[in-house]
């Protein structure tokens, strides 16, 4: 990951919850949970995104972090990039800096990393 200081690992609902907290603990960092809409208490911000079979929404608590904090987003799979893009959009609304997005598996034929624009992306395994 970047040479920049990382403040938080953000795990995406739900399988990103398997990797995000463990990575955060190993690195001695805080962990944020970005959930499907309607699951978090308190004031939240949300973003919708397209799925192959419809649309979905993600949310994060409005006070989850301070402006300028640096975050790495973690999920199990990058397919079309919709979920990861929505997470980056939410973090941007909270004025966080997304340093990188990371997934265990990437389905390269779906070109999801292109949806992330200039945000660096890393995957451990790539499949067509």
UniProtKB/TrEMBL annotation:
Gene3D superfamilies in the record: 3.40.50.2020
EC assignment: 2.4.2.7
Q: What cellular component GO annotations does this protein have? A: cytoplasm
Q: Name one GO biological process term.
A: AMP salvage
Q: Which reaction does this chain catalyze?
A: AMP + diphosphate = 5-phospho-alpha-D-ribose 1-diphosphate + adenine
Similarity remark: Belongs to the purine/pyrimidine phosphoribosyltransferase family.
Assembly: Homodimer.
Name the record gives this protein? Adenine phosphoribosyltransferase
């Amino acid at each position: 990951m970047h040479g920049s200081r990382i403040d938080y690992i953000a795990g995406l609902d739900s399988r990103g919850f398997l990797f995000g907290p463990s990575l955060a603990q190993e690195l001695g960092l805080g962990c944020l949970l970005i959930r499907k809409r309607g699951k978090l208490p308190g004031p939240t911000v949300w973003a919708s995104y397209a799925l192959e079979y419809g649309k979905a929404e993600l949310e994060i608590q409005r006070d989850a972090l301070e402006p300028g904090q640096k975050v790495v987003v973690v999920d199990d799979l990058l397919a079309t990039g919709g979920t990861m893009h929505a997470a980056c959009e939410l973090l941007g609304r909270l004025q966080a800096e997304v340093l990188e997005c990371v997934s265990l598996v990437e389905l390269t034929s779906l070109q999801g990393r292109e949806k992330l624009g200039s945000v660096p992306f890393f995957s451990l395994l790539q499949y067509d």
